[in-house]
Design a protein that fits this description.
homodimer, alpha/beta, Rossmann fold, Alpha-Beta Plaits, 3 domains, six-stranded parallel sheet, elongated, homoserine dehydrogenase activity (chains A, B), metal ion binding (chains A, B), amino-acid biosynthesis (chains A, B)
Chain lengths: 429, 429
């Protein structure tokens, strides 16, 4: 057994506490597997006096990052504070000094991955970030190593627990969006300001990270088309069931001859698709490779111990790399530069729900408008509603996004059409 | 880019061809990721003249292993011939010379893992075997690295594609075992002699490997309790549906205070369990860790390209380790010696189907026998069948295997009981 590998935690919030609990609780096994004990020698916190709810030697705490940076014995800095500032400065400073960094910070990796990896490569330090996507589910290392011999063709993931909880609840209980959101907030699954989760931004950041690794080309948040779930109604969920679909907020990335598609939006998938039965706060990432075929990785996408599990595994790998004197063992894998396919050029099937006047010829005029833009319809359901109104639900065949949007613009102008109530992409068939 | 890493394939059957196709087809990406090209410089075959169905430089082929062993430029030996002899001798010889070995040979690893890892450790060579369990699904590396900070509590896997195909077919179409087996054979999913698959031996070998890694203690094939699917009837499958269960051949390993449980047997699991919707030849491994909670890994458990994907990923890792001069990067992780819990001491719920005389007092005498052995019943269904016979289906509460077997012995002696038609463990609730 070698000398302990000393690490510092930056932050002692939810994930930090999880990491602390795991490293201290499973210390003996971790030492066996690494070949040396892993010792938390410093913890950076803002408030030295606050009760952390865990048994902790107060001498470990510091509110001065310089104490950590200047300590030559600290080989690994574990950033679990979140946010961009000051996390980014701290991490950059550590990497410049050759300290390896483990982080669970999706925002920082998604927005500043390029400079972070360049800095790590320059100093030879390691930079690991398994905890930044899908909590405890192993997905970064599987993509970087286990599936490395594949050309990844497609990723489809449920990578936001808040929205998956809400959609599961809406599907199971028929409640509407507002009610589902309130319950998610009451359970602590959604924040007071739920925008980042509900509008798909959280998923988009994670997708940018996953797609960059899968396709070996840097994809940034701006490249990702994003649409949230706030317009999903109980009615659409009921129709989805009728059509044998389930609605999920999916993060989708595909490599095509015209470039890489990256998009986050509510999606109908067949009820027998492996992702369809991923419910509540669980996450899952479906990966299709040219050799391996279809695979899926499932588990808890957030939480103190699940995310702590991913961070602790990275710490163990980083420690092993340091012991073997190969700290920057697997660096950035974005060795390629591939174009992004514009959203207008992507192809999907679409579910469309229209509120229309219930009179002869309406369906014909709608069908004509779709046909004019080369949108062909796979199925149509028409239901009478109140008074002289009707509801038409259509599912298209595969069509280019641009054509579909053009057709919807035409349909929206028809005097017999009150409104386009919903338009949801259909995938996974 | 560094000089090529040279490798030799032992065998050019299904998996060997897959590895060849992947390494040549994705050569450029693989070189980028490894940091050097991976070059197949020799292939050992029995018959030099046979057509292999792939474009191949005949100069690569040899029927003399000594050519490979004596070539100092060959750094990695990839054993994809299968079986114990001569694979074991070849692999041992390579490891002794310090060549790293990648293998997909579950039999060899399950039966000779200990000596193989000791030999690799002595010479500092790498020994990787991701392809030996569950084909293309990443599971060895996730257990060894991604979930390394966890105490693994339980593994439940569908790790035999043949039996999963058969049970899926029996469940979906109501056909009986013989018909399902014939169709599996016609599709090439089952061998002419299907014993190893159908009787659970194939799954048991894989489970021995998985459990050894999960619990850091060597588990051999002899430790595994094995029961196959040949006694499963269409009738049991129909009852399973009525009770909201699905029947799967599960490989189960649990760590308990009394030791490690390792068993392969047909199992009823709730229809909403993540493993319940894993159908046809797909495999999946459900892993529960103390930190990460429930996770699952899903994909194709066999086949040229899926298994080739796992072997090629190991080759890439082994090559990277060699370039970094750390060939034996992650060695054997069986640093502990834990006792095996005798099957009689394990606990499950049980589904039991009895054929009995349809007359008053029969159920009472059966219930009395169960109660006498402290087996408590959760539900009972009694159905009249032909003539004066009836069928009783019971599900017990959790009970010790020993008590259940004792109770069944008593019940079997009752004059009103024709036979104990089925006894299937229930898990995952």
């Amino acid at each position: 057994m070698q000398e302990p590998v000393k690490i510092a935690l930056l932050g002692l919030g939810t994930v930090g506490r999880g990491v602390y609990r795991i490293l201290t609780g499973n210390a003996e096994n971790i030492a066996h597997k690494v070949g040396a004990p892993v010792e938390i020698s410093r913890i950076l916190v803002r408030d030295l006096t606050r009760d952390r709810g865990i048994p902790l030697d107060p001498a470990l705490l510091t509110d001065n990052y310089q104490d950590i940076l200047d300590d030559p014995e600290i080989a690994i800095v574990v950033e679990v504070m979140g946010g961009i500032h000051p996390a980014l400065d701290y991490v950059m400073a550590a990497l410049k000094r050759g300290k390896s960094v483990v982080t669970a910070n999706k925002d920082m990796i998604a927005l500043h991955g390029k400079e972070l990896f360049a800095t790590a490569a320059a100093s030879g330090a390691g930079l690991l970030f398994e905890g930044s996507v899908a909590g405890g589910i192993p997905i970064i290392r599987p993509l970087k190593q286990c599936l490395a011999a594949n050309r990844i063709q497609e990723i489809m993931g449920i990578i936001n627990g808040t929205t998956n909880y809400m959609l599961s609840k809406m599907t199971r209980e028929g409640v509407d969006f507002d009610r589902a959101l309130r319950e998610a907030q009451a359970k602590g699954y959604a924040e007071a300001d739920p925008t980042a989760d509900v509008e798909g931004l959280d998923a988009a950041r994670k997708l940018a990270i996953l797609a960059s690794i899968a396709f070996n080309s840097r994809i940034t948040l701006n490249d990702v088309y994003v649409e949230g779930i706030s317009k999903i109604t109980a009615r659409d969920i009921a129709y989805a069931r009728e059509l044998n679909y389930v609605i999920k907020l999916l993060a989708i990335a595909k490599e095509t001859p015209e470039g890489i598609e990256v998009r986050v939006h509510p999606t109908m998938i067949p009820q027998n698709h492996p992702l369809a039965s991923v419910n509540d706060v669980f996450n899952a990432i479906f990966v299709r490779g040219d050799a391996v075929g279809d695979t899926m990785f499932y588990g808890r996408g957030a939480g103190e111990l699940p995310t702590g599990s991913a961070v602790a595994a990275d710490i163990m790998d980083a420690a092993r790399h340091i012991l073997y004197k190969v700290p920057g063992f697997i660096g950035c894998t974005c060795y390629d530069e591939k174009p992004i396919k514009p959203m207008a050029m992507t192809e999907s099937k679409f579910y469309i729900r229209l509120m229309v006047a219930d009179r002869p010829g309406v369906l014909a005029s709608i069908a004509y408008a779709f046909g004019d833009k080369e949108v062909s319809l796979a199925s149509v359901i028409q239901k009478h509603t109140d008074g002289d109104r009707a509801e038409i639900v259509m599912v298209t065949h595969r069509v280019r996004e641009q054509n579909l949007q053009d057709a919807l613009r035409l349909v929206g102008c028809l005097s017999s059409v009150d409104r386009i109530a919903s338009c949801i992409r259909v995938e996974g068939e």
